């Protein structure tokens, strides 16, 4: 085997090894990015669920306040008209 063939084979081997290193590095980087994206999505989903629960509680509280105000208005009208059942 000539020196040129030996050098070509050695260069091909080094190039292939370097390409494999780059592929491994790319896979590692992609995996890390995927993990970070999944973590961010999980946090966003959790935050959305908490906001939904808080909004539901707020709407329920507002509904109860409206019902109490309506009942107070009805009682006020009954008192004014003398129709209150209380004796």
Descriptive notes:
- The structure is a single chain.
- This protein has one helix and no strands.
- The protein is mostly helical and 87 residues long.
- The longest helix has 79 residues, at 3-81.
- It is rod-shaped and about 120 Å long.
Features:
mainly alpha, 1 helix, 87 residues
Determine the strand fraction and express it as a percent band: under 5%
Task: Note the gap between the termini.
Answer: 119 Å
SSE order: H
Look at the structure and give the mean pLDDT: 82
Tell me the overall shape.
Answer: rod-shaped
**Share of helical residues:** over 70%
Largest sheet composition: none
Given as residue ranges, the uncertain stretches (5+ residues, pLDDT < 50) are: none
Rg, Cα atoms, Å? 37 Å
Structural class: mainly alpha
> How many strand units?
0
Instruction: Give the helix tally.
Output: 1
Walk me through the topology.
Blueprint: H1 3-81
Question: Quick gist of this model?
Answer:
This protein is mainly alpha-helical and 87 residues long. It has one helix at 3-81.
């Amino acid at each position: 085997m000539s020196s040129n063939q030996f050098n070509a084979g050695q260069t091909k081997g080094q190039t292939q090894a370097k390409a494999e290193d780059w592929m491994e590095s790319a896979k590692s980087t992609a995996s890390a990015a995927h993990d970070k994206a999944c973590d961010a999505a999980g946090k966003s989903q959790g935050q959305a669920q908490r906001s939904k629960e808080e909004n539901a509680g707020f709407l329920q509280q507002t509904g109860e306040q409206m019902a109490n105000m309506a009942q107070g208005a009805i009682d006020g009208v009954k008192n004014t008209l003398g129709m209150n059942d209380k004796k």
